[in-house]
Amino acid sequence: MATLAAVLACTHHPFYYRASQAPEGERLPQADEWVAKVEAYRETLTRARPDVLVMVGADHFHQFFLDNMPQFLIGKAPFYDANYYNEEREFGLPRMLLRGDEDFSAYLLRAGLDAGVDFAFSNELRIDHSITCPIITVRPQNDLPIVPLLTNVFCPPMPQPWRFVQIGKLLRELIESYPRDIRVAAIGTGHLSLELGGPRQFGPHGPDPEFDRRAVDWIARGDIDAALKNVSLDNLGDPGNATHGFMDFMLMMGIAGGVPADYADHLDLFHTMEAYFTWYPNGVPQSDIDA
Amino acid sequence: MSKYLLNKFLYTVDRDPELVEAYRADPYGLVARWEAEYLSDLTGVDAERTTWSSFSDAESDALHNHDYVRLFEMGAHPFLTLTLFIALFERDHPEPLSYQRRYAQALAHITLPHPDIAT
């Protein structure tokens, strides 16, 4: 059976790539601190020695629009082209090509359907920065096959927060029952408080630092019950109009199983807070056996 | 009023560099062209064009005037509006993020709850 070697949940900040590449003199004041935190976080994945990455993210009106909007979709393709023209334009993100693991995708689709979750699927999927940002930050060599899972955190009507947790818990079961001797890391990205296209965007901090403080605490403690008790589809717009992306953090808390994170860090940036969490469901890897 | 159709406009223009430039240069001309060529397109097949959708006068006015405040108030998806308008006008505001902050200030009168974006 597969081993769930690590679960990573983090924000995806499309400005990181450009910020980390900028030459001296053009760098953001926080760029060096940001890069240091990302590099430390990358090590938490490296230590887990994964063979395959299950990547949870959201399509930002790229391949999916309001004429065809899946709630939860699993990609099943041999390869995934990545990043879109408007992400190159706005964020300077590079074109990428990621390898897929079709057998694992097929397994998750079949087993998910049989367990009562009617996942949508795609055999020709171009992925965007919700998945390429964590590749850039925690696996920049882009050498591992992926299984992408996209969620709708953008377009009402969205699934309820509890459904994200439930999907996460199911994914944990499915990954651990996959009959192949591989080490799997599940990596998902979401948001803390975030405003896009509204009056609170691009401020000196995230739009609701108090929400961020509480959300970081729920995630770090693995307190699914507190998160579920405090957030709803209706109130997630209050901390910022794009804060529904927090539900992808809740999905990852579901995969991690409601236990405290083995690694937790955050960085207060302009516009939004960055946050990085890692769980090791089968124990913290020992550094002396690092590959 | 069709939030869906406004979003379809923002979505299809934003993803096409030629349409972005045309919308910046001549919003009346591009809206008319979009209504003729893109509004009813669903599957890419001419025989399958949608037969029933159109902009209201208020929607056309907002698009003609590059009026992102009005689009926000109408419930157009704020992510789509922001992304397109950064492509249109950030270049005129060279100080990093100054356009985005100016954009936020223009929406400062908006209080919670924000206009409903459900389609």
Write the SSE topology.
The complex is a heterodimer of chains A (291) and B (119).
Chain A (H helix, E strand, L loop, with lengths): L2 E9 L4 H6 L9 H16 L5 E7 L13 E4 L3 E4 L2 H7 L4 E4 L2 H13 L5 E3 L6 H10 L7 E6 L9 H16 L6 E8 L18 H13 L2 H7 L15 H11 L6 E6 L4 E7 L12
Parallel strand pairs in A: 1-8, 2-7, 2-8, 3-6
Antiparallel strand pairs in A: 1-10, 3-7, 4-5, 9-10
Helix pairs in contact in A: 4-6, 6-9
Chain B lengths: L2 H12 L2 H9 L1 H11 L19 H8 L3 H7 L3 H12 L8 H9 L13
Helix pairs in contact in B: 1-6, 2-3, 2-6
Tell me the series of helices and strands of chain B, N- to C-terminal: HHHHHHH
Strand line-up across the major sheet of chain A: 6-3-7-2-8-1-10-9
Mean pLDDT of chain B: 97
Classification by helices and strands of chain B: mainly alpha
The CATH architecture assignment of chain A turns out to be 3-Layer(aba) Sandwich
Unreliable segments of chain B (pLDDT under 50, ≥5 consecutive)? none
Distance between the termini of chain B: 10 Å
Share of residues in strands of chain A: 15-25%
Please report the total strand number of chain B as a whole number.
Answer: 0
Q: Beta fraction of the residues of chain B? A: under 5%
